What we know:
- The chain is mostly beta strands.
- It has helices spanning 15-18, 23-26, 114-117, and strands at 21-22, 32-39, 48-51, 55-62, 65-69, 72-76, 81-84, 90-94, 102-109, 121-124.
- A hairpin with a 2-residue loop joins strand 5 and strand 6.
- It starts with 14 loop residues before the first helix and ends in a 7-residue tail after the last strand.
Amino acid sequence: MSGYEILELGGADAWLERGKQFADKQMDTQFIGLSVNALAPGGESPFWHTHSVLEEVYVFLEGKGRMALDDEVIEVGPGTTVRVGQGVWRILQAAPDSPGELRWICVRAGGAELAAIGVDSEKDGERARPW
């Protein structure tokens, strides 16, 4: 691994069109994962998910929406930053009346190299949405 890498993920206005992009799948990262994300107004994550090892930090950049964390639903918008620890189920929805796409960056890390952790997520596509 060299001391640095450069990856062009494109402008935020192209995130929805390209779909969720995992920078760590395109770069040689060791400890930190990052994805760029967008949902159209009224759109939602395709499933709930949780992690057993990794924790995530969501940084919301544009739009407005909701994030369910287990049984709690919070409002999110530009500047909202949410840390989600292990074992917490989460799902996102862009508000139907959002002035534009809900856009965010998600950073995830654990106590070991990402390759050693592997896929630690559990998904639930049948769980009812809270909205």
